[in-house]
């Protein structure tokens, strides 16, 4: 169970956008059903951050940008392996907008990621090269945040990678599984759970 939030806790709600919910271009099963409970939990936190996947058209993470390649296959990028995705979350489109029922009016910061054409960004903290910061870590430090609580989409990619990076940065981290849903490509869900457990991420299971 999620503990009562304190003043140094920050809730990070990851990628609750149309394209990741049912009916979207890269829909995660169970996405729509998360909106109401996330709204309810977010209301208990003083500080909430939203992340927003935000790509230019023709982004390098799209299969359509690589001749002959299909979505959900992996290619080697200069920064390492990259799964290719269907076109999704193209900036200023309906698909990139937050779910219309997401209602967290006291949101303090929106972090956009994946905006740079040559590199994807799953994590809310670093692009997929593992070194280019999004700025979120700096904000959390300036706010004197101590613990990061994560939920949203998708558990096995953007939520999970964000959790691992938050640990790497020295924060206490909780990943709220009932407020997250997974894509599960080639065992990615089991892999991220193991990685989180090994890294000391506390997975909240109910
Ligand atoms: Zn993306």
TrEMBL record:
Pathway: Cofactor biosynthesis; nicotinate biosynthesis; nicotinate from nicotinamide: step 1/1. Residues 10-195 form the Isochorismatase-like domain. Signal peptide: none annotated. The keyword Lipid metabolism does not apply. Pfam families: Isochorismatase (PF00857). Coiled coil: none annotated. GO terms for molecular function: metal ion binding; nicotinamidase activity. InterPro entries: Isochorismatase-like_dom, Isochorismatase-like_sf, Isochorismatase_Nicotinamidase. One of its GO terms (biological process) is pyridine nucleotide biosynthetic process. Keywords: Hydrolase, Metal-binding, Pyridine nucleotide biosynthesis. Its EC number is 3.5.1.19. PANTHER family: LD05707P, PYRAZINAMIDASE/NICOTINAMIDASE. Belongs to the isochorismatase family. This is nicotinamidase. It comes from Acuticoccus mangrovi.
């Amino acid at each position: 169970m999620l503990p009562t939030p304190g003043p140094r806790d920050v809730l990070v709600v990851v990628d609750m956008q149309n394209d990741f919910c049912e009916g979207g271009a890269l829909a995660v099963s169970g996405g729509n059903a998360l909106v109401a409970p996330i709204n309810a939990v977010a209301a208990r936190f003083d500080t909430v951050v939203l992340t927003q996947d935000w790509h230019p058209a023709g982004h390098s993470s799209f299969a359509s940008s690589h001749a002959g390649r299909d979505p959900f296959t992996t290619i080697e990028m200069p920064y390492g392996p990259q799964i290719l995705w269907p076109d999704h979350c193209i900036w200023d489109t309906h698909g990139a907008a937050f779910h219309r029922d997401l209602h967290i009016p006291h949101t303090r910061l929106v972090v956009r990621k994946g905006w740079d054409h040559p590199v994807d960004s799953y994590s809310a903290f670093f692009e997929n090269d593992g070194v280019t910061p999004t700025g979120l870590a700096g904000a959390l430090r300036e706010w004197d945040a101590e613990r990061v609580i994560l939920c949203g989409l998708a558990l096995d990619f953007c939520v999970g990678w964000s959790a691992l990076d938050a640990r790497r940065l020295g924060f206490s981290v909780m990943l709220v599984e009932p407020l997250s849903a997974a894509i599960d490509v080639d065992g990615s869900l089991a892999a991220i759970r193991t990685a989180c457990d090994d890294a000391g991420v506390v997975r909240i299971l109910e």
